[in-house]
Each structure stands twice: as structure tokens, then as C-alpha cells.
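Posting for a labmate who doesn't have an account.
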Amino acid sequence: MLPASLFEKRRQAVQRALGTDGILIIYSARPAIYSNDIHFRYRQNADFFFLTGLAEDRSALILTATDAILFLEDIDPEETLWSGERMGLHRARRELKINTRSMDALAMDMADLLAGKKRLFYAFGADRERDHSILSKLHHAIQARRRSKHLPVEVIHPAEIVHPQRRIHHPAEIEAVKAAIELTDRAHRACMEKSKAGMNEAELEATLLYHFHRERAHEAYPSIVATGKNACVLHYINNNTKIKKGELILIDAGACVDYFNADITRTFPADKTFSAGQKAVYEIVLEAQKKAIKASVAGKTLDDVHRTACLVLIRGLMDLKCLVGLSASDHYKKRTYTAFYPHRTGHYLGLDVHDAGEYYDRKDRPVPLEDGVLTTVEPGLYFQKRLLLPGMTGEQKEKLKRYIRIPRHLQGIGIRIEDNILITRKGPLNLSWNIPKELADIEALKK
């Protein structure tokens, strides 16, 4: 668990950024409906959790330069019968080190706190009912205000002052990610060891869940367990196909510990060894990943990392005669490689799997990586049976298709390798280095 003092420091940093004329309002996430009156397992709004450490619904946080107030439901014995005990006002005040008020007082307190403020930091558009409530408070306050009182004339998304903090990770957060990766390591190894032709993808998904849940962790996201051509579906989550002899199995799965996530992908054979074609593609992806990780240094950008991976993949595809007729640099400029590699090489990682933080600044320049940033590095190659060039017009596809070949013996192969990288002053630190990805290590594990 992260210490309460860390959440307190985060709130103080936001309060300083608000200045005397700013107010921030963040609500907890609403419970998501699974079916009728059945809910999904509750997942807190990441920004709200980042500033409070509270994982309960029906709560709100208001910050100004001088006030930090957490509004939440107090303990209700009847509700406890159905849903379990809530933290309550007194315990929250003591353990979370913040002033607490009942949610019943939110409407009255909000009107007073809005008075005298010019800038409102609030995520309009995320929840109509809450939007209406805040707009109603503003309307009534404008109707009744004295001339000496100002009210917000500018609305700004909380991301402007919260997300820069979330991008740089505290050592305690990094330890939580390491714990999630450790569980993910065990789960991936177990799948590699037990997988074989004749099994169903669902059996491997069950193996992942077993290793996560037995340590009181959860899935960071719906696991992808994709055999054969299913691995060419980037967000495949059906996980219900029988595994055939000679196929590859792609697993993209990670554990979540204390709200922090791992995001790992490995690809391995259903049989004990890779075929010659599978091995050729795998070696290209692995080289691209290693060079992209090496390029993940402070001062460089995720665009730089992506370009590094792309050029390795392009040269490999040229060797396989999949990309023809152009130089590697021209293939990169014309984006012919997207027929085999349609996604980016990495993203930020943390409280959200695709975590907060700017990729480009206000002048549309790539934002440099810094010490304390967590990213993924996840190149891949996918050989569809038909030519796809995502995001391109029919005319563009027609011009480029003469430079692209999809060999029959490679069709249906999908390979991705993904690790979680901590940017440090000394260079990139691969937190998931221990999860097997070398060809020899995977084949040894399979035997």
C-alpha cells in the first residue's frame, strides 16, 4: 500500500498549481453495470485515486489553495449488510490525512468554495448528472452573488495539473509495478510450460487468472490469449479457440497490484520449437524490441523509440521479401510497413495501463522521456491474409500495394514482444527482463 503522506504531498502540489483563484473538483468513478442490478468489480477513477488513495464510490474531492476536502458516504449499517463496510468519515480523516465531510454537504460547500474563484478544474462531459449539478450551482451562485464575489469564468480539465505528476513515478509506485510484473512473470511462465496442441485458449486464460487471484491481485486489463491467426487481431479477447499443432500462441496479459499495472506480451510455440518461418519473424521482432529498449533514454521521445523499432522491422521485412521496391527510409516515409505493423511501439504505464501524460506539447512537439517515466516497448509483426493499410484511403492503398508482398507460408503469423521499461538517468531499466523471450529460453521452457 502507498503511504498516506504520498497522497497528501500530491494534493499539496495540485493546491500550489491552483493558485488563489483556482478550484479543482474530481468525483469518484461510478460503479459500472454488468447486467441489470449486477455490477462489475469496482475500479476507481485514476485521478481521484492518485490524489486520495480512496477506492470507494460516491465520493468527491475538492481542492483550493487553502482547502482540501474529501466528501464521502459515512457508514450505513443496512448498506454494510449488502456491500460490506465503507471507510467512513472518521477513519478516512485519520488514515488518509485529509479533512472529510459527508456527501450530503457537498452541494452547500461547493457553492461557498466556488465563490471568489476564476478557474474551475473539472472534467466536463464525463458525467451528465454531475455536470448538471455543477452548472446548476454556478447558475444559482451567479443569480445570488454579491458584486465583490467572482465565480469561475474558465473551465480547465484536471489533467492539466494532475497528469504531469502522474507521468513521473514515485519509488513506491515503481515497487507496486514490480510486484505486478513478478506475478505476471509466474503466470506467463506457467502458460508457456503447460500449453500444447489440443488445449483451448480459455485454459491458458484460466491459468493467468489463477496466478493473479491467488496473490490477491487482478487482471490489469482483459487478457489476450490468441493462437494462430487470432494473434493478428490486435485486441482479441474471445479466448475460446482450440490450439492447433504448429501454431504460435500470443499472450498479452498483466497483473494489477495496488492499482498499478503490468503490461506484458510474449509469443511462443504450441509445439516444443518454433518452425523456420516463425523463428525468422520472431528474430526480427526481438531485434526491433531490443534496439527500441536501448533507445528509450531520457531526452529521447516515444517517437524516437517508435522510429527505431520501425526501421529494424522494415529491414527485416525487406529481407523476407515482404517489402520491396523502395529503400528502408522510403518504406518508413510511405508507411508501407503498417501492412504488418499497424500500432505504436509503446505507451506510458502506471495507474492506467495506457497511462496519463502528454505525448506531444502544445506546439505538437514530441515530449522527451524523463527519469521516473514508465513505458512499454512492444513491437510486433502480423501477417494478414489480405492487404490492410490502416488509416489510408483507397487511392493511397492502390499506389502502395505494389511494394508489399504477403508470403503464403507467413500468413496467419502474429508475433508481439512487450516489456515494461523504467526510464532512469543511467539508461533504460527493463523491469520485466526475467520473463523468457529469447528463442532458446522459450524452447528450453517448453521442453
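Reply:
Got it, the C-alpha cells are right above this. The radius of gyration is 25 Å.
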